Amino acid sequence: MSLPPAADLGPISFSPGGEEWLEYTDGERRRRVGFHDYAALYAVPGLYERVFYEELGMCSSTVVVAAYGRARERAGADPAGERVLDLGAGNGGGGEALRALGVGHVVGLDLEPEARAAALRDRPGVYDDYLVGDLGAWDVEAVDALRARGLTAVLALAAVGAGHVPPPTLLRALGLLAPGGRFAFAVTPALMPGSEDPDGVATGYPQLLAELLTRGEELERQAYVHRRQTDGTPHDAVALVGRMG
Description:
The chain is 33% helix and 27% strand. By secondary structure, the chain is α/β, with parallel strands linked by helices. The mean pLDDT is 94.
């Protein structure tokens, strides 16, 4: 993944005992922002990549897009004809990985307006369109307009999990696909089908994903480390690729 030009951000430091905040250098001052304050992170060129890719080794864009690419190749699909929705697109790392596969049409969607601004700033031309908003709250006309783009796949590279995209919104995104459309997600193990983790079960994700795979077809499943947590422990994940029934 290419990294956007960045000012001298200095050493990155993290809050002790939890992922609450981080600090970086802005000129001659140290600045502190919330660990998940994505608007503040995206506003500084190169800061998001420095924190999550370089310091914490985040790799879901690479791993999940590669798994999607293998499934596409096995199906004999021409990447130039693929039309992909990058759900929770952030500042464009996933879109860039999709373009590297040769995907012909990529639409980004994120809740955060600053994510769109950062993607256009850091990776111009990666997205054919970049939409901002909560898909789960869109009216029928807006959803139909997105469906009319003829999407062939939905990818969520960091958005499937508690505190991110809720199950009804994910189902609405998948409803944009025709039967046979592909999906690829980065999923926390506690949310996978068959999970007995109480917090994971309470989200509704294990049941949703189990039903999705029962109606459709699982194409690939790969366990990997999404990133390190700030205390050095692994943040495990599963790349799940499937086809709509």
